[in-house]
């Protein structure tokens, strides 16, 4: 197995035993990017010299006997929605084409302190709005398992980067499924932590009551490792929760016994592809073999989740994106214009269609005369969705089901129909609305060789339990060892 | 959503859209609003709205001086600057704009 197919945990061991240097590891991944990324197009920005410099610094630290961080010499790809000091951060938007942040996001500070090697910034749907990366202002990322298909989104570049072995791990963000759905479609692991578990400082805001940062990895050990580094309280995010971070890697291999798995009957309805359903049913049988009790639970308001989401998320987005006015940073329309015309031209030129559509929808939902019928109504149904989960978790430890209704779809298949695209997030969206934790893990392939993901959802701040439940499945199967052959 | 409503919302959202763009927007937003109308079938009379997953409250830090970002670094991203300031169009009298 070559270096690029290894997990972060394995790469750390290879360095400790003296079998690989951080520089050799960085070089392997950079070579992989150079050869294969022109086909996959996962990255917006890679600075090879800067990557080598970071790796060499880790090797020097090791040689001189200095204390090394938990991710020493591990390359990490970063979704371009996270601010990186001195490194362009575009959000895949023309609005931020020339934006170079003067500070690091909290999670970037954490990675640097852990001696990780930041290998590059990854493509995404503009301002994280989308499910396929087709809304990037620059290009569409390809699914490493089938280059004619989308990798999912919005964190499609970060998911494809790990699936194509351009980096062993990466960071994404998840507002309605933007980590879990691409993880599922790319055959890797992706987690949305509980709202408040990871600081959003330096994460360019889309919908502030829903956004969370989380890791993409090949396996559960790397998830545990990444979470130990990025989770924890940060005073710069007023919604960051001050709770201690469990030693996830230490407890990972202890199975949950007894384990009651909830299966929401609402997740097995109309739009679910039969091959995806078969894989999920097989996974549930595997858990039963491991001693788990599978129990039917009900999330009766699930069917309203997309409607609630597209009012709440767009309302918050219309407010958050008001800051792009061409005054302090980002694009500014040319020409001699009065203030209002400059705002309006700047935003018409700088934002792509989907972002404009969501600003319009959110502005409408908050506007005088419509706020009660749309925004307020959505907030009330959001409460009902949250109550459903509280009730369900009183009867089970975790809820299992599909991450996405289908495997990866073809590029262009849904790009002209916004509503059809929104519906591909049907199983992931309620998790954000309720503020709970969710993870997608690989659980099989379609007959045509496309990955399928199993979603595990857990109550707030029960990531430790969620990881252990996922690890039980990983120990019993070998899906996590599969690597895409980029065609 | 008719074209006049779409125009009004575009104005509120500060988006200078062409007539063709407004037309597409009217069709697409109407379809999405038609979909979200299913929420009206639920009785939510006694339901407390949920704006946030956490019981959010004001979070204050100690009232102590801290270094802020260096002015020069911040202004590097400015579309237009004048010394240590952001240069923006005049808001009181359009004639003043000529000096910038």
Task: Characterize the structure shown.
The complex is a heterodimer of chains A (487) and B (100). Chain A is of the alpha/beta class and 487 residues long. Chain A has a domain of 252 residues: Amidase signature (AS) enzymes (Alpha-Beta Complex), CATH 3.90.1300. Chain A has 16 helices and 11 strands. An 11-stranded mixed beta sheet of chain A has the order 1-3-2-4-6-5-10-11-9-7-8, with helices on both faces. The model of chain A has no long low-confidence stretch (mean pLDDT 97). Chain B is mainly alpha-helical and 100 residues long. Chain B has a domain of 38 residues: Histone, subunit A, CATH 1.10.20. In chain B, helix 1 packs across helix 2. At the A-B interface, helix 10, helix 11, helix 12, helix 13 and helix 14 of A face helix 1 and helix 2 of B.
Provide a concise account of the structure shown:
Chain A is α/β, with parallel strands linked by helices and 487 residues long.
Layout of strands and helices, then pairs:
The complex is a heterodimer of chains A (487) and B (100).
Chain A (H helix, E strand, L loop, with lengths): L7 H9 L5 H19 L2 E3 L2 H16 L11 E5 L26 H8 L3 E6 L33 H8 L5 E6 L5 H7 L2 E4 L19 E6 L2 H11 L17 H4 L8 E5 L9 H16 L3 E5 L7 H16 L18 H12 L2 H14 L5 H22 L4 E5 L15 H6 L5 H6 L2 E9 L5 E8 L4 H14 L11
Parallel strand pairs in A: 2-3, 2-4, 7-8, 7-9
Antiparallel strand pairs in A: 1-3, 4-6, 5-6, 5-10, 9-11, 10-11
Chain B lengths: L2 H10 L6 H18 L34 H5 L5 E2 L2 E2 L14
Antiparallel strand pairs in B: 1-2
Indicate the radius of gyration of chain B in whole angstroms. Answer: 23 Å
Provide a count of the helices of chain B: 3
- Name the CATH superfamily classification of the domain at 3-254 in chain A: Amidase signature (AS) domain
Mean pLDDT of chain B: 90
Enter the CATH topology name of the domain at 3-254 in chain A.
Amidase signature (AS) enzymes
User: Mind telling me the C-alpha Rg of chain A?
Assistant: 21 Å
How far apart lie the N and C ends of chain A?
Answer: 19 Å
- Indicate the CATH architecture of the domain at 3-40 in chain B: Orthogonal Bundle
Q: Report the order of strands and helices of chain A.
A: HHEHEHEHEHEEHHEHEHHHHEHHEEH
Oligomer: heterodimer
CATH architect. name of the domain at 3-254 in chain A: Alpha-Beta Complex
Shape of chain B: flat
Helix content of chain B: 25-40%
Work out the number of β strands of chain B. 2
Name of the CATH class of the domain at 3-254 in chain A = Alpha Beta
Low-confidence stretches of chain B: none
């Amino acid at each position: 197995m070559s270096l690029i197919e290894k997990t972060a945990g394995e790469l750390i061991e290879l360095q400790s035993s003296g079998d690989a240097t951080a520089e050799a590891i960085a070089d392997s991944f950079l070579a992989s990017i150079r050869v294969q990324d022109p086909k996959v197009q996962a990255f917006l920005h890679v600075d090879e010299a800067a990557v080598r410099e970071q790796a060499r610094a880790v090797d020097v630290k090791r040689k001189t006997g200095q204390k090394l961080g938990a991710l020493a010499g591990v390359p990490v790809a970063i979704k371009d929605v996270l601010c990186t000091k001195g490194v362009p951060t575009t959000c895949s938007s023309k609005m931020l084409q020339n934006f170079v942040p003067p500070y690091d996001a909290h999670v970037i500070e954490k990675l640097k302190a852990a001696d990780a090697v930041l290998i590059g910034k990854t493509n995404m749907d503009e301002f994280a709005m989308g499910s396929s990366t087709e809304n990037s202002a620059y290009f569409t990322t390809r699914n490493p398992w089938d280059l004619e298909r989308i990798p999912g989104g919005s964190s499609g570049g970060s998911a494809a980067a790990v699936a194509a072995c351009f980096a062993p791990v990466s960071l994404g963000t998840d507002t309605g499924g933007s980590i879990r759905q691409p993880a599922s479609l790319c055959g890797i692991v992706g987690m949305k932590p509980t709202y408040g578990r990871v600081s959003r400082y330096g994460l360019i805001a889309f919908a502030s009551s829903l956004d969370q940062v989380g890791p993409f990895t090949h396996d559960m050990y790397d998830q545990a490792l990444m979470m130990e580094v990025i989770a924890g309280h940060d005073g710069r995010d007023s919604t960051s929760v001050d709770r201690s971070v469990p030693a996830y890697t230490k407890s990972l291999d202890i199975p949950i016994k007894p384990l009651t798995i909830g299966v929401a009957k609402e997740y097995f309805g109309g739009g679910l592809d039969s091959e995806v359903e078969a894989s999920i049913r097989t996974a549930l049988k595997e858990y039963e073999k491991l001693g788990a009790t599978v129990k039917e639970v009900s999330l009766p308001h699930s069917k309203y989740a997309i409607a609630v989401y597209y009012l709440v998320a767009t309302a918050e987005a219309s407010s958050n994106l008001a800051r792009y006015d061409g005054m302090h940073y980002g694009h500014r329309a040319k020409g001699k214009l009065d203030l209002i015309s400059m705002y309006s031209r700047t935003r018409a030129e700088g934002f792509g269609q989907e972002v404009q559509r969501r600003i319009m929808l959110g502005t409408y939902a908050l506007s005088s005369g419509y706020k009660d019928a749309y925004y307020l109504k959505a907030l009330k149904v959001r409460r009902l969705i949250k109550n459903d989960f509280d009730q369900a978790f009183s009867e089970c430890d975790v809820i299992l089901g599909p991450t996405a209704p289908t495997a990866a779809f073809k590029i262009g298949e849904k790009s002209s129909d916004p509503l059809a695209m929104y519906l591909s997030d049907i199983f992931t969206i309620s998790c954000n609305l309720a503020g709970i934790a969710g993870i997608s893990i690989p659980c099989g392939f379609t007959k045509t060789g496309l990955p399928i993901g199993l979603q595990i959802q857990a109550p707030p701040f029960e990531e430790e339990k969620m990881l252990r439940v996922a690890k039980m499945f990983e120990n019993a199967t070998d899906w996590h060892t599969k690597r895409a052959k980029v065609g | 959503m008719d074209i006049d409503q779409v125009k009004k919302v575009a104005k509120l959202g500060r988006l200078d859209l062409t007539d063709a763009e407004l037309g597409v927007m009217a069709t697409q937003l109407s379809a999405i609003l038609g979909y979200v109308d299913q929420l009206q079938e639920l009785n939510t009379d006694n339901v407390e709205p949920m704006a946030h997953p956490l019981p959010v409250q004001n979070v204050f830090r100690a009232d102590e001086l801290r270094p802020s970002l260096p002015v020069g670094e911040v202004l590097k991203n400015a579309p237009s600057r004048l010394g240590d300031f952001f240069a923006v169009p005049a808001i009181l009298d359009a004639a003043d704009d000529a000096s910038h």
